[in-house]
Request: fold
Amino acid sequence: MPEEQYLNLAAYAANVHCLGPGPRVVFWVQGCCFRCPGCVAPDWRPCTPAHIVTVDALIAFCRLLTDHRGITFSGGEPMLQAMGLHKLWRGISDIHPSWDLIIFTGFTPQMLAKDERRQKFARDADALIAGPYIQAHHTETGLRGSSNQMIRFKPGGRFTENERLDIISGTRSQEVHINKDMAVIAGIPPRSGAVHKDMIEHALQKNTKKVKGWQKTVP
Reply:
């Protein structure tokens, strides 16, 4: 299976506003090489098949979303599927040249520099949030999970100064997105990781079979 033709996705959602300026499309990949304590999505760590989708099918899906403004890649670890995601991004940007790109990765810039393909992919990001999550340095604002993580903005990128400030230190929110029989909770969670009861109730009302994403027992 050519790695640049297919992607192994944990989940995806459109019309997301909590992982960068929206509305945007978010793709969460399956599989991660890091084992960060306090990880918000442990179900997405195993490098096992989840939803195998062709890159071309995802490009066709994004072609229809003319009212969106960007893409976010998260996971899981996007850099483990750098070739496929890079091809996906190039295909989307050909269709929607004004769209921006945000990438979350546990790799540091120094680690990315050791792999030409990953480094090339990372350079396409208008905002790269890089570095492993460290629970002791958890933050409550912006798109960094912990303060050790670096945010690198692309020179001449698509974000305005206010959007950059919001990515760095803006107020967070979380959202529930329903895809067929699954509810995906999007957004950077608080330190407790607690899911709001109304989010769970909304998912149950939609008769979803399970809720994916960051979650702990609702108090």
